[in-house]
Design brief:
This protein has helices spanning 8-12, 34-50, 98-106, 121-125, 130-135, 155-166; strands at 20-28, 54-74, 77-93, 111-118. The protein is of the alpha+beta class. It is extended and about 65 Å long.
Length: 175
Amino acid sequence: MSESNMPVAEAMMGEEREAQAYELAFHILPTVAEGEVKAVFESIKNTITKLGGTLREEEAPARFELAYELVQFLEGRNRKFTSAYFGWVRFSIEADKIAELVDTVERTKEILRHLLIRLSKAEEANPFYFHPAIAHRVVETIYVEADEVVEEVDVEEVAAVEAVVEDGVETEEAV
């Protein structure tokens, strides 16, 4: 190969690069006023478009209860959160712009946490809408009176069943 010839991959580097599909999912702090949540979401989307990204689909942030408590160091102390506003946006952007986007999101003080993933073609074609999905879940609350008798459980028997199931082997003893 002569000095003037180069592999196709290197030759394409200077030309137009193909944008990749991404999804940015995020939690906005529950301390943000409900009216300001939309502004935070718009700010994230504006950052994407300013970097040359193209917005595809989105789910506006809505408040919900977290599965577990999150601790975040804010304003000089650890704060505990049990709820947040959750939303996501899907977009296409050149890969070299991702570091700048992540840096901007991490500096956004209203964001509790975030996750950025590159989407496969199947994921890109089938978005999952979180808020409608959790709206249909059934939550059953059982109220127990203080004087009701709770069935005694043999702790050793439970531990033996858990050990068998953890090993991936289910036997008649475990069932």
